[in-house]
């Protein structure tokens, strides 16, 4: 069905004076960044930050100016790197040699200070990336929970390491030690949560952090700069602002980065790794592209499938790496499924992030609406249709979801990760077709299988567990719970993240060993008894 505008859509953007006061934020013109434990003043170039929320004007809707941030250059970036390197000091610095209990106390102080900024950060998430009030609140609270879970996981890890082991005449204590300087770069879609799922475990394990702020969601971190400054030793966390192509290249080329923690595209990740002069020394923890498929068979409960596919495809406008970005539906039920799907999409309320029950909000990326239109036009030129009324309607930063059917392998929507509110639906006859898609795909993060037939589900589970990292049965693809491993195959990830796995990813096992002699036993007992070493310890952290 062709897109058409209705009065409803022309009411998306409101005059600024009609926006409730409790959701407004003052313009923030940030003129400082965190360097070596100080908030250093900045008087150079700045980058203006605009909201996806538009304000009606005589010239049409215009993105609201939220403020500006420093646009530092290569010289300042290298100063930030040097501060990070100095704080780590080849593993001899205050932070990497601090006891586990000491690092935990610093992290607990950070959480306390972070919670004080809860309301302003939630408002900034709504304005900067267009995330709904409910989802912005959930992102903040989930991040706090994640930090607390990480603290508990480290306590458990330390308790397991607090005893000596003996084998073949050798006694040893095995603990996990930091890796060095970590360059942490994250995405705009979860500018708090996803970045912290790498930054926090990397930090608490004793690494020093070079924190490159995301392009969208950058101001949401401004209220936390003082918390980082107050909670951790000098140089432990340092922030980077500016164009990644200008400031990250010299940082990587220096060879001083030990770990790359990056969430974004595989193309960018590959380029960053190649810049490092000694790639064998660089550990990479990457969460990258995904084109997660849903498979709806003729034996599926269609109401369950539609509900979960809507959540999977359109939560935060489909701007999630774990979003369902391609739906295979068996031809026997394709008509019934697409009818239910289009009805469900039509019932979704568009609006501004703080409005009650709103589901579809403006998009932060300026180039996203024209790209989505290009994908839809390509599909239509090759035989597909937009099934839902107003599907693909676009005004400024707002784009209403489009259900596109039937999609085939000749279309961009079949192969490219749209990362937005477009739902491509692919009809299939044989169950081998979605399996073949996954075999040939460049990505391998997750799949969702919808069927009530045990034998059919079994025959899909066995091939897919070797093609993707997570198989979801009758539910959407998702990251959580955070205690579960989160990774991917092919171009989708490198390394594994979960509350526990992340601690391992950002550390290495180190041990102190000695021959079992009376002299050595007395020596080790004295060190442990007198608490002369932070590494050799049998203390139990409660």
Structural commentary:
With about 550 residues, this protein is α/β, with parallel strands linked by helices. The protein has two domains: about 230 residues, Aldehyde Dehydrogenase, Chain A, domain 1 (3-Layer(aba) Sandwich), CATH 3.40.605; about 190 residues, Aldehyde Dehydrogenase, Chain A, domain 2 (3-Layer(aba) Sandwich). About 40% of the residues lie in helices and about 20% in strands. The strands form seven sheets. It has a seven-stranded mixed sheet, sandwiched between helices. A six-stranded mixed sheet has the order 10-9-8-11-12-24, with helices on both faces. The chain has a three-stranded mixed sheet with strand order 1-5-4, with helices on one face. Strand 11, helix 10 and strand 12 form a beta-alpha-beta unit. The longest helix has 28 residues. The radius of gyration is 25 Å and the shape is globular.
Structure characteristics:
542 residues; Aldehyde Dehydrogenase, Chain A, domain 1; Aldehyde Dehydrogenase, Chain A, domain 2; globular; Ald_DH_C; NADP-dependent glyceraldehyde-3-phosphate dehydrogenase; oxidoreductase activity, acting on the aldehyde or oxo group of donors, NAD or NADP as acceptor; oxidoreductase; Ald_DH/histidinol_DH
